[in-house]
Design brief:
The structure is a single chain. With 207 residues, this protein is α+β, with helices and mostly antiparallel strands. The protein has helices at 2-49, 101-104; strands at residues 64-65, 70-71, 80-86, 91-97, 108-110, 122-126, 145-150, 153-158, 161-166, 181-188, 198-205. The protein folds into two domains: 1-49; 64-205, Sortase (Sortase, Chain: A), CATH 2.40.260. The protein is 25% helix and 29% strand. The strands form two sheets. A nine-stranded mixed beta sheet has the order 8-7-3-4-5-6-10-11-9, with no helix packed on it. A hairpin with a 4-residue loop joins strand 3 and strand 4 (91-97). The chain is elongated and about 70 Å long.
């Protein structure tokens, strides 16, 4: 009986100590968050804007080895190296390498998980659905031409398929290596209030 009471006392003391420790940790984390929130925000902002210089001249030294379908040198992250053009929708936008929030403020961003035009594999690009960017993308039709005019050559893609998916359906924009195909997407629907959770995706193989 004595041992049972002793064990109960130890257990209560242990639980009490854990609760106190949790409260202390919570308070410390809260204080750190309050004291350094500004610094943390600045650091995140700095990471998000790194290498973005919209006044910088378009790159001239990017070259492609046509024999092996690969670039001999690659654009710097955050730099504009092309324009993406959809004449049927009156779209002509700068194309940047990278897809951070800061890059997408200035034009269409290209995912670093994909490849470049001319390399024979997936090119994955995205842009905001605002009026000055890709608001009209959902109007696109099968057979529409999309041009990407890069510093090392021009490439034309023909829309083969469009699809609306939930933002968590990552396989819909998964890169592949079998053939060159442009995957271009934006948030959908374009006129929704708040944060849209769907994506309108265009698939366009190289001509």
């Amino acid at each position: 009986m004595h041992n049972k009471q002793k064990n109960n006392t130890i257990m209560k003391a242990t639980i009490s100590n854990l609760v106190v420790a949790f409260i202390y940790v919570f308070i410390i984390v809260l204080i750190i968050g309050i004291l350094f929130s500004s610094t943390i925000s600045k650091a995140i902002s700095l990471i998000n804007t790194i290498s973005i210089d919209t006044n910088k001249e378009i790159l001239k030294d990017v070259k492609i080895d046509l024999e092996h379908n690969q670039l001999e040198s690659y654009p710097e992250f955050g730099s504009k190296y092309a324009n993406i053009i959809i004449e049927d929708l009156d779209i002509n936008l700068p194309l940047y390498y990278g897809d951070t929030y800061s890059i997408l403020r200035y034009g269409v961003g290209q995912s670093i998980t994909g490849y470049f035009p001319g390399e024979g594999k997936s090119i994955i690009c995205m842009g905001h659905n605002s009026k000055k960017f890709l608001r009209r993308l959902p109007e696109i039709k099968i057979g529409t031409k999309i041009r990407i005019e890069t510093v090392y050559g021009n490439y034309t893609y023909t829309v083969q398929e469009t699809k609306i998916v939930h933002q968590t359906e990552f396989d819909a924009i998964k890169p592949q290596r079998e053939k060159e195909i442009l995957t271009l997407y934006t948030c959908y629907p374009v006129d929704t209030l708040g944060y849209p959770t769907q994506r309108f995706i265009v698939y366009a193989p190289l001509d």
